[in-house]
Write a structure and sequence with these properties.
The chain is α/β, with parallel strands linked by helices. Helices cover about 50% and strands about 10% of the residues. The chain has seven helices and four strands. A four-stranded parallel sheet has the order 3-2-1-4, sandwiched between helices. Helix 3 runs antiparallel to helix 4 (about 55-70) and helix 5 (about 85-100) crosses helix 6 (about 105-120). The radius of gyration is 16 Å and the shape is globular.
Length: about 150
């Protein structure tokens, strides 16, 4: 049993952009996220625009939807529990970079998930769509949630 799913930004983007496994990710709850997602998710969505995958007007809507989920709005609480990036998390991430050869922000994401796993008795599952990050998470003892397969169209 898990207290929730820690979702890396690669997973969060699937809440807004139609990508492989998006439907499955959209079924997961509760979601915990690193404060880094505040920058990484809009950056990933705008990158899709620069790659001519999504029109700028549509990206603006998707970013607004993400921000409403991140911050909440009048009468609606935030969709995510946000894990603040602290000096201690940065130190843990610096260690993870050396142990697992991760990119800097991936190490911060993993350090955030591990901090939650240490603090919550039921632990947390870890979801990312990055092979190196998933390998490191598994080596650190985190498990991944089962993503439901896509349903065929009627």
């Amino acid at each position: 049993m898990s207290a929730g799913v820690f979702a890396d930004s690669s997973a969060l983007v699937k809440l807004y952009a139609d990508e492989q496994d998006a439907d499955g990710v959209r079924t997961l709850s509760p979601l915990l996220v690193s404060q880094l997602a505040r920058v990484e998710v809009p950056a990933a969505l705008w990158r899709k625009h620069r790659a001519d995958e999504i029109a700028a007007s549509h990206v603006a809507i998707l970013v607004a939807e993400f921000e409403a989920d991140y911050f909440g709005d009048i009468g609606t609480p935030p969709r995510f529990s946000v894990i603040a990036v602290t000096a201690g998390l940065i130190d843990a991430a610096a260690h993870l970079v050396g142990v697992h050869g991760l990119r800097a922000f991936d190490a911060v994401q993993l350090a955030s998930a591990l901090a939650v796993a240490d603090a919550v008795p039921d632990g947390v599952q870890f979801l990312a769509f990055d092979r190196a990050l998933n390998t490191a998470a598994a080596a650190e003892g985190l498990t991944a949630p089962q993503i439901p397969p896509p349903q065929p169209l009627p």
